[in-house]
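Worked Example 4.2. Read the sequence first, then its structure tokens.
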Amino acid sequence: MSIRMFNRKLLLLTLLTAMSWLGVMAQNVNVHGTVSNENGDPQNGVNLIVSVFFADSSAALYSTYTDTFGTYSVDVATQDPSLLGFLEVSMVDCWGTTESQYFTILNGNEVFEADFTYCQGIVQDSCVMFILSTSIRAVLCDGYIFFWMCRDRLY
């Protein structure tokens, strides 16, 4: 075998080894999901923030929006498949409330699903009381009228 042929085979072997090493090194974590309202209708244009923190103190922040079907997907590239990590997916709904879901990254190739309900209805579970001043003096009220409302009913 000639030296030239040996060098070509060595170069080919080196390239194949390097490509396989890069395939092992570049692992992906995928987080995806759906954002819908409380009736199940998809929500378009909702902003989601994906934060990733790894044990070697590296971090990444991704921002994405839902499409017309209410779905989103984010791919996070990890360099070390054995590196532990922490993933947070957050959404701010129309009430100004931040909703978050958390996941632990145990190996390089993982898929997480984080579904959200946008603008869940708020159930009123308390009463509102109104105190009005009046010139009529009632027994035990001493010039005040008391009203209270519980679940849309005035008492």
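Now turn to a second chain, presented in exactly the same format:
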Amino acid sequence: MPLPLETSLTYFRSDVPAGQSGAWVVEKVVIPERDYDSATDPRPDCFKLRPGLYTCLRHGSTQFMTDLYDEWWTQRSAIQQALSRGGDVLITGLGLALVAEAILREPGSSVSRVTIIEKSADVIRLVAPYLEERHPGKVEVIEADAFVWKPTAGCHFTVGWHDIWPDPHSEQVTQEIAQLREHYRPWCDWQGSWPEDYLEACGGESVAARS
């Protein structure tokens, strides 16, 4: 039975510094105030306009991740499962490390360690030093292909969270989620993915990916 999502979890914005490595860029983006009536916006509340300064990770012109409110909202199941289960957590896809940081920054968190599998050395160079400095001894970032990497003997994770896609609507996502679930099934008690939670939040309708 799925655990209820905690409404007390606190949204936060990323402090990963701006930078560039290869074609990968972390940049700060301002969403300005404008004439906007949220009551007339038909989208679910989490997708509605919230002006402010945000952080974006992109590869060339393709946006892979932001710290917009909907990005945090559609990953709450991973955060809640990790906080409820504790122990060691596995995440495929580093991105801006929102889920890892949300898990580790929570007061009284019983998560002992977060292992993150990231294919891009450039993303690791941009984001991992920040995360490791904030949470020393609690994070291991491994440069590897999530579809190939296997944990060492005796390794076990209470939670496995998969978030390697910039677009939850792309044709290969469903198949790749199934592949990752099957690949990590022997090592994970519970698994989830961002595309599934994103599509559930928007009722299965097309909402601009990664806002």
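Notes for the reader: The CA atoms of residues 65 and 114 lie 19 Å apart. The longest helix spans residues 121-134.
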